[in-house]
Design brief:
CATH architecture of the largest domain in chain B: Orthogonal Bundle
Mean pLDDT of chain B: 85
Largest sheet of chain A: 6 strands, mixed
Order of helices and strands of chain A: EEEHEEEEHHHEHEHEEHHEEEEEEEEEE
Distance between the termini of chain A: 46 Å
Number of domains of chain A: 2
Radius of gyration of chain A: 25 Å
Number of strands of chain A: 21
Structural class of chain B: mainly alpha
Structural class of chain A: alpha+beta
Number of helices of chain B: 24
Oligomer: heterodimer
Largest sheet of chain B: 2 strands, antiparallel
Shape of chain A: elongated
Low-confidence stretches of chain B: 1-10, 14-21, 302-306, 578-583
């Protein structure tokens, strides 16, 4: 049984089926719309990531949920309780929201020991001393800091401070966990390790979580769902596989992973969601069968989006509508060959299988799988 | 998992969250403090402006609106000269203080002068002592008739007349220049010490020589610091009362401060004319401070990076002994000679410019310090008692205020924060005597007039920005997330302040407290305007003795004050550490 399920009956999902509901969130900084009409929900126990470059509004959204910012319009509800609703003049102060939060700087209080840091939320909640001690010991063991309880926060390494911050956030079994780029100050190796660790702990305690990051790999590894944001707006919401395989627009496909993006025009719709797109570059044109993204119809201007690993490069022309090009760069990476193939004025990024043995200067044919070739909104 | 929540230990969230964001502990506290600070700072200045346009009629009872006070500033026999004297003194002491401050900072930060680590803390001592007492000491050292140096020159070398004479405008420049040199030193030594050595190294790699590097890289980087220090010295000298009162006013060189003083409490008292003179002085200083804050301080490069650098040290060769001699000479004339002179004079029943070993007595200390001694002097013993009360209460209240104000400036965003930030700079621009005139004309008809409360109000209003800066610098170094994570853990704003913010700020709060304690213990120009019978302060006691008693009693009380200040400085350095002073 997960501890999260022990919260009161009031904490059930609301009518919309979502535990956290953000509706029409608007936050202005001066005349700048830092968050512009953002709406989303998170189901109970799920792990949602807000992903985007700095300045996209993801942290502002998180701060608004935390109550560390006021908002200018919209509504935030958690477990059926209104947290913020400026239209009705409602604002629950941050300390009443019962949210655990892990900050970018970890924010471990340097004048307290690790155990004192972790005990703090329980002291605020007036839990009895004996129970505090037991729960602090348990949670420190959970995050792997069982031996560090009496160390001063300043004696911990970055990764350990991170674990202590997590322990402090979950010790009171809050209704919601918020993470503000918690791994961005760690070195690469530790970061990769902590991704898995953090996901394990969140899964174990089962607390609904919202995670903010600019690191797409982090988002893909950890999330049940990802929201890609840009310029204060949501670009796409979906599971990691969906976001990667079916980006809705050029922005998302470029932000998540690597993509070949080429302007084109839809020349035919062959079946619902299927069609052909015509691309041109430097006097060369081609027609490719592809999937059509939402809102893409016949005659529409679209962006062709193909992942490098979904482009097949061969020396023989298979007889299909292959593109003929020249390899101008081939970098052997062990598990693949990272190629650049010139076609007209366009350079295709191609991940070729190492067995192909492609070398710079060779003539190759590029073949596309219609299932993994997308026409998306520009 | 075993981390389980017993029912009822989670936060009880109200079913409907009717929490108006406007009414929180935080916003209420912000409002209250803004109003208090606003009233304390703005009200006296406002009343001062208004008072300066009230003209006293010939009978000295009724007033009417008019510009006559300002006309008098030009037509008076003494005031225009006082104005010129003030500017001459300020300019002179700025040049002197800048010369000493920059030289000493350079010697200590960038050369291999022997013993510089040991000398460094002593260079700052004049900053913590009373310039008024310095003037008294120098009067006894090198005054026209009573100067020890002059009488020695006469006795041993047969010099006729005076070898040196500080009883004039140049003496004022000499003493203020010496005592304010540490201000320039503080502004410059930080940027010299924290300068990234690669800035100079890269200039050298392009082929620039030592001198060229110094002129094109080092000096421009330090220039804003020098200029800031110079402006502060100019303004502080213009507002200095004790030194010209002791050294130049009795010999015919009045300054604006000595004139304001005589209009406030003298025989020809005219508060309204005094207000107009205060306006004239205040406008000059505010303008200069505004220029410093607006254009010069932002160009200071001291905090380019937080990295600790090991700055380039220049090998002076044989000249390093000259550098050492220069530093020792400064300490001799600014600290050691004056204090020794005070001690010597204070042990004589009367001072006749010669040391008479047979006459040495501690009786002067008995009369000025022991309030139970039958022939004690009330003004002196009251002063000791009152100053300790004022310093303790003033520093405590000012630091509480500083804490809340700093918190509001740096942790709450909005119009109120910016207004508070501005209000904290305003008092720094006004000399103590000007602010005291504002407080006097504002509260003269209230019950707090001539009580310790009015002095306390003046002290806090004028000096709390010093404490606030101490707290702010620490607060800026502490991540806001440390506060926010406490709020997220469920603690209210007040609990967060009590359990997280204040404990983290403790070093800054304590350093600020001791600094204010020291400033209040030696304060003269506010006290001299606001004191009444029974509410003398330590420095007012010294003033009383020098004016109505004799030099030896004056020296005894001055010596006592100096010893207390030195002890405070010692404690301050032990606790706050070396960095706290240069911050």
């Amino acid at each position: 049984m997960t501890a999260g399920s022990m919260l009161g009956a009031m904490d059930n999902n609301s009518a919309s089926g979502q535990y956290v509901e953000v509706q029409g969130l608007v936050k202005l900084f001066g005349n700048d719309r830092a968050v512009d009409n953002v709406s989303f929900g998170v189901a109970k126990g799920k792990f949602l990531t807000l992903l985007g470059p700095s300045g996209c509004g993801k942290t502002t959204t998180l701060m608004s949920i935390a109550g560390l910012h006021t908002i200018d319009a919209g509504q935030i509800r958690v477990g059926g309780v209104v947290y913020t609703a400026p239209a009705q003049g409602l604002f629950l102060p941050p300390e009443k929201r019962d949210i655990g939060m892990v900050f970018q700087s970890y924010a471990i209080w340097p004048h307290m020991t690790v155990a004192e840091n972790v005990a703090y939320p329980l002291e605020i909640r007036k839990v009895e001393r004996a129970e505090i001690d037991a729960r602090v010991a348990d949670v420190l063991k959970l995050v792997g800091l069982g031996q560090m309880a009496d160390k001063l926060a300043t004696q911990l390494s970055g990764g350990q401070q991170q674990r202590a911050a997590l322990a402090r956030a979950i010790v009171s079994q809050p209704r919601l966990l918020l993470f503000d780029e918690p791994l961005s100050n760690l070195d690469l190796k530790l970061r990769e390790q902590m991704r898995v660790e953090l996901k394990r702990i969140q899964h174990e305690v089962g607390i609904t979580s919202i995670y903010v990051t600019h690191d797409q790999a982090e988002a893909l590894v950890m999330s049940d769902e990802i929201i890609v944001m840009s310029k204060g707006r949501i670009q796409q919401k979906g599971g990691p596989r969906e976001i990667y395989a079916r980006p809705v627009n050029a922005y998302v496909s470029n932000f998540i992973g690597v993509a070949n993006l080429l302007k084109g025009r839809v020349i035919a719709v062959t079946a619902p969601g299927r069609g052909e797109v015509e691309i041109a570059a430097g006097g060369r044109t081609a027609q490719l069968a592809c999937r059509l993204g939402a809102g893409i119809g016949a005659g529409a201007e679209a962006m062709l989006s193909v992942r490098p690993e979904n482009v097949e490069a061969t020396r023989q022309n298979g007889g299909g509508p292959d593109l003929e090009g020249e390899v101008i760069q081939a970098i052997f990476l062990g598990n693949c060959i990272d190629c650049r193939v010139r076609w007209g004025e366009f350079e295709w990024k191609v991940m070729a299988h190492p067995r192909t043995g492609l070398k710079a200067g060779e003539k190759v044919y590029l073949r596309f799988d219609p299932e993994h070739t997308l026409a998306v909104q520009p | 998992m075993s981390v389980q929540t017993a029912a009822g230990t989670t936060l009880q969230i109200p079913a409907t969250s009717r929490w108006r964001s406007l009414v929180t502990q935080e916003s209420v506290a912000t409002l209250v403090v803004s109003v208090i600070v606003g009233a304390a700072v703005i009200l006296p200045l406002l009343v001062l402006v208004i008072s300066s346009f009230r003209v006293l009629d010939s009978s000295g009872f009724d007033t009417a609106w008019g510009l006559d006070n300002y006309v008098t500033l030009y037509t008076d026999r003494v005031i225009p000269k006082a104005f010129v004297n003030t500017l001459v003194i300020s300019a002179g002491s700025t040049v002197l203080a800048t010369f000493f401050g920059v030289s000493l900072a350079w010697i200590n930060a960038r050369t291999n002068c022997p013993g510089r680590d040991r000398l460094e803390p002593y260079n700052l001592i004049p900053f913590f002592l009373s310039p008024f007492v310095g003037a008294i000491a120098w009067h006894n050292l090198a005054g026209g008739k009573t100067g020890l140096l002059n009488s020695w020159a006469h006795d041993y070398f047969g010099v006729q007349g005076n070898l040196v004479n500080v009883d004039n405008i140049y003496g004022v420049i000499w003493v203020t220049g010496l005592f304010f040199a540490p201000l320039v030193y503080l502004f410059v030594v930080g940027s010299l010490r924290r300068m990234d050595p690669s800035l100079e190294d890269s200039a050298r790699t392009t082929g620039a020589g030592v001198v060229r590097t110094a002129m094109t890289v080092t000096l421009p980087l330090v220039a804003p610091g020098i200029l800031s220090g110079a402006i502060i010295v100019f303004v502080t000298s213009a507002g200095e009362f004790g030194v010209p009162f002791k050294l130049s006013a009795p010999y015919g060189w009045q300054t604006l401060t000595t004139q304001i003083f005589s209009k406030a409490v003298g025989d020809d008292a005219n508060l309204y004319l005094g207000a107009a003179m205060s306006m004239a002085l205040g406008i000059i200083t505010v303008l200069l401070i505004w220029i410093q804050q607006r254009y010069i301080a932002p160009r200071s490069f001291t905090t380019v990076t937080g990295k600790g650098f090991r700055p380039n040290v220049i090998d002076l060769g044989g000249w390093k002994w000259l550098a050492l001699a220069f530093n020792v000479l400064f300490l001799l004339v600014a600290v050691l000679l004056p204090i020794l002179c005070l001690l010597v004079v204070s042990l004589h029943p009367v001072w006749q410019a010669e040391i008479i070993p047979a006459d040495l007595t501690l009786h002067n200390y008995v009369r000025t310090l022991f309030f139970w001694a039958p022939d004690h002097i009330a003004a002196a013993t009251n002063g000791i008692y009152n100053s300790f009360i004022l310093a303790f209460a003033g520093a405590t209240i000012a630091m509480v205020l500083s804490l809340v104000v700093s918190y509001m400036i740096h942790r709450t965003k909005g119009a109120g924060a910016r207004l508070l930030d501005f209000l904290c700079v305003v008092p720094v621009g006004f000399p103590g005597i000007v602010l005291a005139m504002g407080v006097l004309v504002t509260y003269i008809r209230t019950p707090i007039y001539a009580t310790l409360w009015i002095i306390l109000l003046g002290y806090i209003t004028r000096f709390f920005p010093y404490g606030q800066r101490n707290v702010s610098s620490v607060m800026l170094a502490i991540s806001e997330e440390l506060d926010q994570s406490s709020r997220m853990a469920g603690a209210s704003w007040f609990t967060t302040l009590r359990r997280i913010t204040i404990p983290l700020l403790k070093p800054g709060i304590f350093a600020g407290w001791v600094l204010l304690f020291i400033i209040f213990l030696r304060e003269l120009s506010i006290s001299i305007i606001l004191y009444g019978p029974g509410t003398e302060t330590l420095s007012v006691g010294v003033y009383y003795l020098t004016n109505y008693e004799n030099e030896t009693l004056t020296s005894a009380l001055s010596m006592a004050q100096t010893v207390v200040l030195l002890v405070c400085v010692f404690v301050f350095r032990r606790i706050a550490g070396r960095e706290a002073l240069t911050a």
